[in-house]
Amino acid sequence: MQFFSILMAAVAPGVALLAYFYLKDRYDTEPIHLVMKMFLFGVLIVFPTMVLQRALVHATSDDPFSFAFIISGGLEEFLKWFLLYYIIYRHTSFDEPYDGIVYAVAVSLGFATLENVIYAFFNYSSFSLLLLRAFLPVSGHAIFGVLMGYHLGQAKFHKEVETKHLLMSYFVPMFWHGMFDFILIQFPSNWAWLMVPFMIYLWVRSIKKVNRANSTSPLRLITREDEVKI
């Protein structure tokens, strides 16, 4: 019974956040099987990420900046970006800017959910700690997914600035992911004083991206025309 309780506590934050961002799609929700497929891919890339990170840790110096921005943020966000670019970017279901956010959040939360499950079973000490992880790493990955997906959507539907936004779709979440880890590493005793305003800022920024992506959907014009006819 305790096994099931811990598992549910570890999985619930990722599933809840994915549902939240999935339902924020105003005009044309994505095929649920494709969203879950990307979530599963996010789960699967945890294993090669762990292997590569271990190798990089042994190959580099013990430097907080390198670990935060290259080994953690750089590598994790690159693998997510790689999946999205080669599986979703040219997919026919990716037909409005907000779709990039849905799929990027799905990959990110798949990654975060397995990471949370591993932590829960190998480092579990209290339920309150799992709640803290829901606020920090899990929601952090969701935010990084929003930022990545927003720029992927801009790249796909604004060809004149495609290269710029493709680059931003990797480097923007990589930077904020690196900052997230750097704060935790560099300020082990008083990280909360920096992390709380940091997370609030990122959540506000992310919600603005969500609203902006929805507001630029080409499907909103079709929806309005249908409403007028009715």
Range of helix content:
over 70%
Mind telling me the C-alpha Rg?
18 Å
Query: Which regions are unreliable across 5 or more consecutive residues at pLDDT < 50?
Result: 223-230
Quaternary assembly:
single chain
Listing every helix as H and every strand as E from the N terminus to the C terminus, the arrangement reads HHHHHHHHH
Total count of domains: 1
Shape: globular
What is the number of helical segments per DSSP (H or I, 4+ residues)? 9
Major sheet size, sense and barrel closure: none
| Secondary structural class | mainly alpha
Proportion in β-strands: under 5%
- Quantity of strands, as a count: 0
User: What's the average pLDDT?
Assistant: 87
Gap from first CA to last CA: 53 Å
Plain-language structure description:
It is found in: Cell membrane. One of its GO terms (molecular function) is metallopeptidase activity. Its EC number is 3.4.-.-. This protein has one domain (2-6, 17-215). By secondary structure, the chain is mainly α. Helix 3 (46-59) packs antiparallel against helix 4 (64-88) and helix 6 (127-157) runs parallel beside helix 8 (191-215). Helix content is 84%, strand content 0%. It has helices spanning 2-23, 32-44, 46-59, 64-88, 97-123, 127-157, 162-186, 191-215, 219-229.
Q: Summed up, what is this model?
A:
The chain contains nine helices and no strands.
